[in-house]
Amino acid sequence: MNFAFRLRQALLIVHVELGRAFFSKRAFWVYGLALFPLIPFMGRGLDVTWKRQRASTSSITREQLDRVAEGQTLEEVTQQLGKAFREGHWEERREKRTHDWRSYYEGSQRVDLDFTNGVLTHIRRENIADFDRTASSSPQSSNTSISAWRFSSGASGSL
User: Fold this and answer.
1) Fold entry, domain 59-152
2) Least packed by Cβ within 10 Å: which of 3, 68, 108, 112?
3) Taking the C-alpha atoms of 112, 141, 122 and 146 in order, what is their torsion angle to the nearest 10 degrees?
């Protein structure tokens, strides 16, 4: 018996044993359980990618967004920035107030504008997850408050 024969014999035994161990019915369940944690991460990655693509259809620049100030009317902001990629409207009948919100996207930042009775009352800026940037830049939110979170939680309007 020479070395080549023993090597072929060892490879054949390895092939048979690996086939029996790795491709059995019981092994597929284990592989499925091992890959299960991958699903939420891939889902979030796809979600962020789709939202960025949908939001990037508008051509808003950071300079345009910086010119928006509290106290402007809904019509002024719409004329200045154009149609928002997300918007919503609801009314408080007891207090006779109307609320509108608009979301604009500038590439790496989402800006939510909250209007009460047609006047801009709150601006919230939120950095969006950006896979193109380095890992050292961490997204931070500025001007956040509980009332701003309530408006952007998606309770009304469409996505």
Assistant:
1) Beta-lactamase Inhibitory Protein; Chain:B, domain 1 (3.30.1450)
2) 3
3) 110
